[in-house]
Every structure is written in C-alpha cells, then in structure tokens.
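Q&A log
Question type: sequence-to-structure
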Amino acid sequence: MLAAASTGPQGARARLGAARGLMIADLTLAVSGRRGVGKTSLVNGLLGVTTGTRGLSAQQRPLEVFGGSDRVPEWATSTRALSPFLEGRRVVEVPDFAPASRPQLLDAMRELRPDVLVYVAHEDLRADEVDTIHQSALAWGLGVSEVIVVLTDPLEDRATYVEALRDVVESTHRQSVGQVVVESRLEPGRCRDTVRALELAERYAVARRTAVVLEAVATVSLEVEDLAWSARLRDDLERVALSPHCHVLRERWALDTALSGLAQLDEEMLLDLRASYLSPAIHDAGGELVRASLLRRAAKWQAEASRTSPRAAEVARTVVRSCQLRLAELSTAATPREPGSRTEPTHQRDPAHVVA
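Response status: OK
Response body:
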C-alpha cells in the first residue's frame, strides 16, 4: 500500500516514504540491567559469538550497538558481528549508568528507536530495577508486551529455584513486564528461550510501528489536495486496517490494557491472556488438541464479555477474535489443495508485509 501510495502527489511522497522506511527498518533490541548480571553474556548467547570485554564499568565501556545497517549516533560504539541473529535486527547493550545520569541516557537512546527492552536481572527484580524498567518503557514509548525480563543464575543446581522465581516476578510485576525468561547458562548460542520470547515481543513491536504508520497515512490522506487519490488511499487504508493481518494491533492493545491493570480481569483470566498471546507453544502448535483448546478458550472469553466491564469486555472480544482467526488458519492449513495452487494464509503473525 505504501509503495503504491508513494508514487502519488509530490507533497505526500516524502512523508509516505518515511513511513515505509519505519516499517522496513531493523528492529532494535535494548539489553539493559545492573553491572555484573550478565548483559554481555546474554548478548553473546543471542548472537552465538563472543563480543565485548567483561568487567568494564559503564564509564569505560559506552553504549554499544551490534549489527544493523541503520546509522549509529557518534556517541555510541558500533560493532559489527557476523551472526544470523542480526538479520533484520540490531542489539544495543546499555551500560549501568548512575541514577542521576540515567534520564539523559534514556532520552539519548530515543534516537536509536528501541523496539524491545530486554532487562537482565540476577534472580529477582529490586525496586530500583522496576523503576528503571518503567522509566525506559516510558521514554521509548514501549508497551508491557515489549518488555522482557531475563533472570540469570550461574549455578545450574539452582535452576529450579530460579524457575520458581519466574512465577513470582510475573505475578508481582505484571504491570511492568510482559515475559519472564530464565537463563541458567549464558553461553553463545544457548539462549533459545530468550530468542523465542523476543520473537513474540517483536510481533507486538511491529504492530506498534504499524499503528504509527497507519495513523500517518490517514493524516496524509486528509491533507492532500488530489481528492480522487486521497479517496483511493483511504479505501486502501481501511482495507488494510480491517484485514485479519492487522488484528495483532488489537491483540497488543488487549495485552497491554490487561497487564497494565486498566481492564479489571481476575487472576484466572489474566493467566489465560498470557497463555493466549505470550506462549510460544500456542503460536507454534497445531492439530486437533489445539483446535479443541481454542474452542474452549473462545467460549470462556465470550462468556467473560457478557458479564464484565466495557473495557474488559472489549479485551474479551479481542481474544475471541484471535481464537477465531487461529481456527481459520488451522482449517486453511488442513485443507487439501490442487497441485500447483496457492493458498494465502488468513492470519499472519507479522503485519509488516501488508503495509510495506
């Protein structure tokens, strides 16, 4: 849609070109946390290679950007690393600055447009760390769904203990954290649980970008003098916004609204919401058992929609629609096709291809 619209009136081309640039820009992952908790080790684990030097203080080692083709500010250190993980991504390792200088750092980081915050902590979150997560998300415009906490512990025999802490962090800090991951072995190529959590968080990060772009396109369609072109653009915009591909925008809204406490859902429904949108198994699985589970979930949320507050009811209807789309996707995947025929999926996880 943007590619076609960018060939329209001259006055709209620059703004639509910038919107398209936002959709295709590399995703930026900010890895933050206190000194000594394993930030560099986690970056090594994600990239599958050894990078940087451990043990340096924030003053000795400035903010470091790994990979990515986008321009890096002069005040940041750029490091190239050969890693498949950096295809379409860049990783920013944020040092542990003193609280007094943290606001300036967070403000400067906005130039890098962080899409996901990965906060590394040792076993649990302290009050000042929760405050840092809040400040970072607010400064960068991130929702709860784009915040991941990685709990680390160097001793494998304590892994079960740290796993138990995951539930504590999720229940205690749900208004700040979307996903909690436990990584007991921070070694290159071993942080697979964090990678899977990132894939889900990136889905909502792309949705956030998409919402910004759709709003920009709507503004352009109202300001251009070519009425016929503007009408066509608005028709295309409505078709994209109402497509199943863009339902992820509603999912992101529902997730952030519920986890932020703006929708009055009980504990059981909040846990089910997390399972619906923040569980890799739900997105990867298929078959009759998943179909039956989706039908039960849809029925439960449909009942919730009829007896709860208006905002919570809207969250419930969003989950029901998500179940319907997933069921349609499973049915499409199971339908036999003629040799050589093509079937378009009914629901893509990433709406970027629709807009870009």
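Response note: Strands lie at 27-33, 64-66, 77-79, 89-93, 116-122, 147-152, 179-183.
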